[in-house]
Amino acid sequence: MEWNGPGNVQITSRPPCRPPPFLATLPYHPVPLHDLTTGFIGRLRSRDGDAWFELWEIFGPVLRAQLARWGRGRIGFETVQDLSQDTMVALSRAIDQHDPTRGARFSTWLLAIAKYTLSDEMDRRGALKRGSGIRPLALDAEGMREPDSGDLQPDAAYELEVFDAKVEAALRRLERDCDLMDFETFRMRTLEGRSGKDVAVALGTSEPTVSRRLARSRTRLQDLLAEVFATFSFTEEEIAELERNGIERSPNKTEDASFDESIAEIYARIMARRSTHEARGEDR
């Protein structure tokens, strides 16, 4: 079973996800064993298919949203889909150049590649209209170099979607890893904001049991949030986003309610964004 995303909080069975088409086009470049690391960048560099699918699952929707914003109606949804996959292919050719120690967010670097991909497409269209046969800009190593600080400033909407995508990934893992009743308790109590009494009645159990199940789910979610942010963040600033948004692990149990409220607020934001995309006919 997998979480259907914020547009639908019901737990339903789905067939296994099909890998996006770009995965089949990834070039394989053997990486010397001593260059591999246990980190996520190392897995990407070794062309680990699971790692690339994780990256696509989390960042694919964010890329599509950003490309659509940049397109300003000049490109259709299918083109946005294609460009987001082209961005991932370009990333696969440039991943060896990424150096997380330089302080650039991975999401910022990915955004720079997406911008070059879109520019390439717009140049191609312009050349076709003019009939000049001008060759579009190539996504070569020069075009995909590490951006300097200040070279590309992602807008707030993009960074917020990246943050929300990481939280959503942790929620998906929670549903996958959690006991069914523990997750249902968490879903109803935290994500839907129902009272402990209502949840107890709905699940045919007692309020103390609801509290225990909620505590287990909360602890597991905190572990998963730390895991996801450690995997998909490449600067200390990104890791610190957990604390800044009130969803870090705290030994102070009096802050549990604040954690739940923060998760509920983020979830509501994700759900509202999903509803907007669905209203526009955009399948995310």
Give a summary of the structure in a few sentences.
This protein has about 280 residues and is mainly alpha-helical. The chain is about 60% helix and about 0% strand.
Give a quick set of tags describing it.
single chain, 284 residues, mainly alpha, Arc Repressor Mutant, subunit A, 12 helices, disordered N terminus
* Text of the CATH class of the largest domain: Mainly Alpha
Mean pLDDT: 75
**Rg value:** 21 Å
Computed structural class: mainly alpha
What's the end-to-end separation, in Å? Answer: 19 Å
Note the overall shape: elongated
Largest sheet: none
Counting H and I runs of at least 4 residues, what is the number of helices? 12
Description:
This protein has 12 helices and no strands. The chain has 2 domains: 38-153, Rna Polymerase Sigma Factor, Chain: A (Orthogonal Bundle); 157-279, Winged helix-like DNA-binding domain superfamily/Winged helix DNA-binding domain (Arc Repressor Mutant, subunit A). It has 284 residues and is mainly α. Helix 3 packs across helix 5, helix 3 packs antiparallel against helix 6 and helix 7 (180-191) packs antiparallel against helix 8 (196-203). The relative contact order is 0.12. The longest helix is centred in the middle third of the chain and has 25 residues, at 106-130.
